[in-house]
Amino acid sequence: MQQYGTPPRLVRYWIPGVLLLLTGGSLLRILANRRAQVLQWIRELGQTTIDFWFNWVVEPTKRLVGTIRHDETSELAVMSKDSLRSDRESLERMVVDFAIANPENGSAYSDAQIAAIRLKVKQGDLSTVLRAYEKDIQSPVKGALLGNLAQALLIQVQKTKVDVEVAMNGIDEILKSQELLFGFVGVAPGMLITYIAFRWLSSSFGNRRGLRELQRQGEAVRLLRNIDRTLSNATPTENGMLSYKDHGLLLCEVHVLRQRTASLVPGRLQREFLEDIQDLLNIRHVEHKVNVLNRIQWAYGKWLI
Q: Where, per UniProt, does this protein localize (predicted)?
Protein backbone atom coordinates (compact mmCIF):
# COMPACT_ATOMS: atom_id res chain seq x y z
CA MET A 1 0.00 0.00 0.00
CA GLN A 2 2.88 2.39 0.72
CA GLN A 3 4.41 1.59 -2.67
CA TYR A 4 1.29 2.08 -4.80
CA GLY A 5 -0.67 4.50 -2.60
CA THR A 6 -0.84 8.29 -2.71
CA PRO A 7 2.63 9.87 -2.87
CA PRO A 8 3.83 12.08 0.02
CA ARG A 9 2.91 15.78 0.12
CA LEU A 10 6.48 16.80 -0.72
CA VAL A 11 6.34 14.84 -3.97
CA ARG A 12 2.91 16.22 -4.87
CA TYR A 13 3.55 19.89 -4.12
CA TRP A 14 7.27 20.48 -4.79
CA ILE A 15 6.66 22.13 -8.19
CA PRO A 16 4.15 24.74 -6.87
CA GLY A 17 6.42 25.29 -3.87
CA VAL A 18 9.47 26.05 -6.08
CA LEU A 19 7.43 28.42 -8.26
CA LEU A 20 6.15 30.21 -5.16
CA LEU A 21 9.70 30.63 -3.83
CA LEU A 22 10.91 32.04 -7.16
CA THR A 23 8.03 34.49 -7.66
CA GLY A 24 7.09 35.21 -4.04
CA GLY A 25 9.60 38.05 -3.63
CA SER A 26 8.40 39.84 -6.77
CA LEU A 27 4.76 39.49 -5.76
CA LEU A 28 5.49 40.87 -2.29
CA ARG A 29 7.37 43.85 -3.75
CA ILE A 30 4.49 44.64 -6.11
CA LEU A 31 1.97 44.45 -3.27
CA ALA A 32 4.18 46.57 -1.03
CA ASN A 33 4.64 49.28 -3.67
CA ARG A 34 0.92 49.40 -4.43
CA ARG A 35 -0.37 48.77 -0.97
CA ALA A 36 -2.47 51.95 -0.88
CA GLN A 37 -4.07 51.15 -4.24
CA VAL A 38 -4.81 47.57 -3.25
CA LEU A 39 -6.40 48.69 0.02
CA GLN A 40 -8.42 51.31 -1.86
CA TRP A 41 -9.65 48.68 -4.32
CA ILE A 42 -10.67 46.42 -1.47
CA ARG A 43 -12.52 49.25 0.32
CA GLU A 44 -14.29 50.35 -2.87
CA LEU A 45 -15.27 46.78 -3.66
CA GLY A 46 -16.68 46.29 -0.16
CA GLN A 47 -18.52 49.65 -0.21
CA THR A 48 -19.94 48.94 -3.67
CA THR A 49 -21.18 45.56 -2.51
CA ILE A 50 -22.79 47.08 0.60
CA ASP A 51 -24.41 49.92 -1.38
CA PHE A 52 -25.75 47.48 -3.94
CA TRP A 53 -27.21 45.25 -1.23
CA PHE A 54 -28.99 48.06 0.61
CA ASN A 55 -30.04 50.21 -2.41
CA TRP A 56 -31.12 47.45 -4.79
CA VAL A 57 -32.19 44.62 -2.48
CA VAL A 58 -33.03 45.83 1.03
CA GLU A 59 -34.78 49.13 0.18
CA PRO A 60 -36.89 47.74 -2.72
CA THR A 61 -37.84 44.81 -0.50
CA LYS A 62 -38.94 47.20 2.27
CA ARG A 63 -41.06 49.16 -0.21
CA LEU A 64 -42.55 45.93 -1.53
CA VAL A 65 -43.43 44.80 2.00
CA GLY A 66 -44.92 48.23 2.68
CA THR A 67 -47.04 47.91 -0.47
CA ILE A 68 -48.30 44.49 0.60
CA ARG A 69 -49.14 45.88 4.06
CA HIS A 70 -50.77 48.93 2.40
CA ASP A 71 -48.42 51.42 4.04
CA GLU A 72 -49.43 54.94 2.98
CA THR A 73 -45.83 56.17 3.01
CA SER A 74 -44.90 53.63 0.32
CA GLU A 75 -47.72 54.47 -2.12
CA LEU A 76 -46.81 55.65 -5.61
CA ALA A 77 -48.22 59.07 -6.52
CA VAL A 78 -47.77 61.64 -9.29
CA MET A 79 -49.34 64.41 -7.18
CA SER A 80 -49.89 65.04 -3.49
CA LYS A 81 -52.97 63.57 -1.86
CA ASP A 82 -54.64 66.89 -0.87
CA SER A 83 -53.68 68.91 -3.96
CA LEU A 84 -56.86 68.17 -5.94
CA ARG A 85 -59.15 68.74 -2.98
CA SER A 86 -57.67 72.16 -2.13
CA ASP A 87 -57.73 73.38 -5.76
CA ARG A 88 -61.32 72.21 -6.22
CA GLU A 89 -62.42 73.98 -3.06
CA SER A 90 -60.62 77.11 -4.25
CA LEU A 91 -62.47 76.94 -7.58
CA GLU A 92 -65.79 76.59 -5.76
CA ARG A 93 -65.09 79.68 -3.65
CA MET A 94 -64.01 81.68 -6.71
CA VAL A 95 -67.17 80.77 -8.66
CA VAL A 96 -69.46 81.41 -5.67
CA ASP A 97 -67.85 84.79 -4.97
CA PHE A 98 -68.15 85.69 -8.65
CA ALA A 99 -71.81 84.68 -8.73
CA ILE A 100 -72.60 86.61 -5.52
CA ALA A 101 -70.81 89.71 -6.84
CA ASN A 102 -72.47 89.48 -10.26
CA PRO A 103 -76.01 88.09 -9.92
CA GLU A 104 -77.70 87.45 -13.26
CA ASN A 105 -81.13 88.90 -12.36
CA GLY A 106 -79.78 91.69 -10.17
CA SER A 107 -81.11 90.06 -6.99
CA ALA A 108 -78.99 88.26 -4.43
CA TYR A 109 -78.78 84.47 -4.53
CA SER A 110 -80.45 82.43 -1.83
CA ASP A 111 -78.64 79.71 0.14
CA ALA A 112 -80.31 77.04 -1.99
CA GLN A 113 -79.10 78.70 -5.20
CA ILE A 114 -75.56 79.02 -3.83
CA ALA A 115 -75.62 75.32 -2.88
CA ALA A 116 -76.80 74.52 -6.41
CA ILE A 117 -73.92 76.57 -7.86
CA ARG A 118 -71.43 74.65 -5.65
CA LEU A 119 -72.90 71.36 -6.87
CA LYS A 120 -72.57 72.45 -10.50
CA VAL A 121 -68.93 73.44 -9.93
CA LYS A 122 -68.19 69.98 -8.48
CA GLN A 123 -69.73 68.50 -11.63
CA GLY A 124 -67.59 70.78 -13.83
CA ASP A 125 -70.38 73.20 -14.81
CA LEU A 126 -69.23 76.86 -14.88
CA SER A 127 -72.20 78.26 -16.78
CA THR A 128 -72.54 81.19 -14.34
CA VAL A 129 -69.01 82.37 -15.13
CA LEU A 130 -69.13 81.47 -18.82
CA ARG A 131 -72.24 83.59 -19.49
CA ALA A 132 -70.50 86.63 -18.02
CA TYR A 133 -67.35 85.73 -19.96
CA GLU A 134 -69.29 85.48 -23.25
CA LYS A 135 -70.80 88.89 -22.59
CA ASP A 136 -67.50 90.60 -21.77
CA ILE A 137 -65.51 88.94 -24.57
CA GLN A 138 -67.65 90.79 -27.12
CA SER A 139 -65.85 93.99 -26.04
CA PRO A 140 -62.52 92.72 -24.68
CA VAL A 141 -60.99 96.06 -23.79
CA LYS A 142 -64.12 97.35 -22.11
CA GLY A 143 -64.69 94.00 -20.42
CA ALA A 144 -61.13 93.93 -19.11
CA LEU A 145 -61.24 97.50 -17.78
CA LEU A 146 -64.81 97.86 -16.62
CA GLY A 147 -66.21 94.29 -16.65
CA ASN A 148 -65.34 90.97 -15.17
CA LEU A 149 -63.29 89.55 -18.04
CA ALA A 150 -60.05 89.27 -16.05
CA GLN A 151 -61.78 87.53 -13.15
CA ALA A 152 -63.57 85.14 -15.51
CA LEU A 153 -60.28 84.28 -17.22
CA LEU A 154 -58.62 83.56 -13.89
CA ILE A 155 -61.49 81.31 -12.90
CA GLN A 156 -61.10 79.39 -16.18
CA VAL A 157 -57.37 79.06 -15.54
CA GLN A 158 -58.20 77.58 -12.14
CA LYS A 159 -60.73 75.27 -13.83
CA THR A 160 -58.06 74.10 -16.29
CA LYS A 161 -55.72 73.40 -13.37
CA VAL A 162 -58.42 71.35 -11.65
CA ASP A 163 -59.07 69.37 -14.86
CA VAL A 164 -55.38 68.57 -15.20
CA GLU A 165 -55.24 67.42 -11.59
CA VAL A 166 -58.32 65.24 -12.13
CA ALA A 167 -56.48 63.56 -15.02
CA MET A 168 -53.37 63.17 -12.87
CA ASN A 169 -55.49 61.70 -10.11
CA GLY A 170 -56.71 59.08 -12.59
CA ILE A 171 -53.09 58.24 -13.37
CA ASP A 172 -52.47 57.94 -9.61
CA GLU A 173 -55.30 55.44 -9.33
CA ILE A 174 -53.80 53.37 -12.14
CA LEU A 175 -50.39 53.46 -10.45
CA LYS A 176 -51.86 52.40 -7.13
CA SER A 177 -53.71 49.51 -8.75
CA GLN A 178 -50.41 48.28 -10.28
CA GLU A 179 -48.21 49.25 -7.32
CA LEU A 180 -47.48 45.66 -6.31
CA LEU A 181 -46.35 44.88 -9.86
CA PHE A 182 -44.02 47.88 -9.85
CA GLY A 183 -42.67 46.73 -6.51
CA PHE A 184 -41.78 43.30 -7.90
CA VAL A 185 -40.22 44.92 -10.98
CA GLY A 186 -38.13 47.16 -8.73
CA VAL A 187 -36.83 44.36 -6.54
CA ALA A 188 -36.34 41.80 -9.34
CA PRO A 189 -32.99 43.08 -10.78
CA GLY A 190 -31.25 43.18 -7.40
CA MET A 191 -32.60 39.76 -6.45
CA LEU A 192 -31.57 38.32 -9.82
CA ILE A 193 -28.02 39.67 -9.62
CA THR A 194 -27.71 38.49 -6.00
CA TYR A 195 -28.97 35.03 -6.96
CA ILE A 196 -26.54 34.79 -9.89
CA ALA A 197 -23.62 35.91 -7.71
CA PHE A 198 -24.59 33.45 -4.97
CA ARG A 199 -24.90 30.60 -7.45
CA TRP A 200 -21.54 31.49 -8.98
CA LEU A 201 -19.82 31.56 -5.59
CA SER A 202 -21.49 28.35 -4.45
CA SER A 203 -20.64 26.61 -7.71
CA SER A 204 -17.03 27.84 -7.53
CA PHE A 205 -16.56 26.39 -4.07
CA GLY A 206 -18.92 23.49 -4.72
CA ASN A 207 -17.07 22.40 -7.85
CA ARG A 208 -13.98 21.70 -5.82
CA ARG A 209 -15.98 19.70 -3.31
CA GLY A 210 -17.76 17.98 -6.17
CA LEU A 211 -14.49 17.10 -7.87
CA ARG A 212 -13.20 15.59 -4.65
CA GLU A 213 -16.39 13.56 -4.27
CA LEU A 214 -16.15 12.41 -7.88
CA GLN A 215 -12.57 11.32 -7.29
CA ARG A 216 -13.61 9.40 -4.19
CA GLN A 217 -16.52 7.82 -6.05
CA GLY A 218 -14.12 6.78 -8.81
CA GLU A 219 -11.85 5.21 -6.22
CA ALA A 220 -14.83 3.47 -4.63
CA VAL A 221 -15.85 1.97 -7.98
CA ARG A 222 -12.29 0.78 -8.57
CA LEU A 223 -12.08 -0.74 -5.08
CA LEU A 224 -15.44 -2.50 -5.44
CA ARG A 225 -14.29 -3.82 -8.77
CA ASN A 226 -11.06 -5.12 -7.22
CA ILE A 227 -12.98 -6.80 -4.38
CA ASP A 228 -15.36 -8.42 -6.86
CA ARG A 229 -12.41 -9.58 -8.99
CA THR A 230 -10.63 -10.98 -5.94
CA LEU A 231 -13.72 -12.98 -4.94
CA SER A 232 -14.39 -14.12 -8.51
CA ASN A 233 -10.84 -15.33 -9.15
CA ALA A 234 -10.32 -16.82 -5.68
CA THR A 235 -9.69 -20.54 -5.32
CA PRO A 236 -11.69 -21.66 -2.26
CA THR A 237 -10.35 -24.29 0.08
CA GLU A 238 -12.12 -27.57 0.71
CA ASN A 239 -14.28 -25.84 3.31
CA GLY A 240 -15.30 -23.09 0.85
CA MET A 241 -13.11 -20.52 2.59
CA LEU A 242 -10.67 -18.06 0.99
CA SER A 243 -7.01 -18.90 0.92
CA TYR A 244 -4.65 -16.83 3.01
CA LYS A 245 -3.41 -14.99 -0.07
CA ASP A 246 -6.88 -14.11 -1.31
CA HIS A 247 -8.00 -13.18 2.19
CA GLY A 248 -4.98 -10.87 2.52
CA LEU A 249 -5.79 -9.15 -0.79
CA LEU A 250 -9.41 -8.80 0.30
CA LEU A 251 -8.31 -7.34 3.63
CA CYS A 252 -6.20 -4.67 1.92
CA GLU A 253 -8.92 -3.66 -0.52
CA VAL A 254 -11.60 -3.51 2.17
CA HIS A 255 -9.35 -1.44 4.43
CA VAL A 256 -8.75 1.12 1.66
CA LEU A 257 -12.48 1.10 0.81
CA ARG A 258 -13.37 1.89 4.42
CA GLN A 259 -10.92 4.81 4.53
CA ARG A 260 -11.77 6.38 1.15
CA THR A 261 -15.56 6.09 1.30
CA ALA A 262 -16.31 6.92 4.94
CA SER A 263 -17.19 10.53 4.05
CA LEU A 264 -19.38 9.59 1.06
CA VAL A 265 -21.96 7.60 2.99
CA PRO A 266 -24.42 9.73 5.04
CA GLY A 267 -23.97 9.73 8.79
CA ARG A 268 -27.31 8.00 9.40
CA LEU A 269 -26.04 4.98 7.41
CA GLN A 270 -22.47 4.89 8.69
CA ARG A 271 -23.19 2.18 11.26
CA GLU A 272 -24.86 -0.16 8.77
CA PHE A 273 -22.15 0.52 6.19
CA LEU A 274 -19.37 -0.40 8.62
CA GLU A 275 -21.26 -3.55 9.61
CA ASP A 276 -21.46 -4.62 5.96
CA ILE A 277 -17.76 -3.84 5.49
CA GLN A 278 -16.98 -5.98 8.53
CA ASP A 279 -19.05 -8.82 7.09
CA LEU A 280 -16.66 -8.94 4.13
CA LEU A 281 -13.79 -9.65 6.52
CA ASN A 282 -15.49 -12.38 8.52
CA ILE A 283 -14.21 -15.90 7.96
CA ARG A 284 -17.11 -17.29 6.00
CA HIS A 285 -17.77 -18.95 2.67
CA VAL A 286 -16.97 -17.11 -0.56
CA GLU A 287 -20.64 -17.14 -1.60
CA HIS A 288 -21.53 -15.27 1.57
CA LYS A 289 -18.92 -12.60 0.81
CA VAL A 290 -20.24 -12.24 -2.74
CA ASN A 291 -23.75 -11.67 -1.37
CA VAL A 292 -22.41 -9.06 1.06
CA LEU A 293 -20.63 -7.27 -1.81
CA ASN A 294 -23.86 -7.24 -3.81
CA ARG A 295 -25.69 -5.81 -0.80
CA ILE A 296 -23.13 -3.02 -0.48
CA GLN A 297 -23.51 -2.18 -4.18
CA TRP A 298 -27.30 -1.89 -4.19
CA ALA A 299 -27.64 -0.38 -0.69
CA TYR A 300 -24.93 2.31 -0.97
CA GLY A 301 -24.53 2.59 -4.74
CA LYS A 302 -26.27 5.97 -4.69
CA TRP A 303 -23.27 7.47 -2.90
CA LEU A 304 -20.45 5.15 -3.94
CA ILE A 305 -21.11 4.63 -7.65
A: Mitochondrion membrane
Distance separating alpha carbons of residues 221 and 4, to the nearest angstrom: 17
Residue type, 5: G
Same domain, 171 and 216: no
Instruction: Kindly state the average pLDDT of the residues 163-176.
Output: 76
**Is residue 251 in a domain?**
yes
- Report the candidate in 73, 61, 74, 293 with the shortest Cα–Cα distance to residue 179: 74
Q: Computed from CA positions of residues 164, 165, 170, 174, in that sequence, does the dihedral angle turn out positive or negative?
A: positive
The total of structural domains in the chain comes to 2
**Boundary of a domain, candidates 131, 162, 177:** 177
Residue 281 lies in a domain: yes
Question: At which of 177, 197, 229 does a domain end?
Answer: 177
**What is the chain's mean pLDDT, rounded?**
77
pLDDT, residue 284, reads 67
Phi, psi of 31 (to 5 degrees): -65, -40
In which domain, by residue range, is 271 found?
A: 205-304
Which of 298, 249, 301, 253 lies closest to 277, judged by CA?
253
Is the domain of 216 the same as that of 292?
yes
**Cβ contacts of residue 258 below 8 Å, gap of 6+?**
274, 277
Residue 292 lies in a domain: yes
Alpha-carbon gap, residue 129 to 257, rounded angstroms: 100
**Chain segment 66-111, per-residue pLDDT in tens:** 766 655 554 555 556 677 788 888 888 888 888 887 777 667 777 7
* Cα distance between residue 195 and residue 201, in whole Å: 10
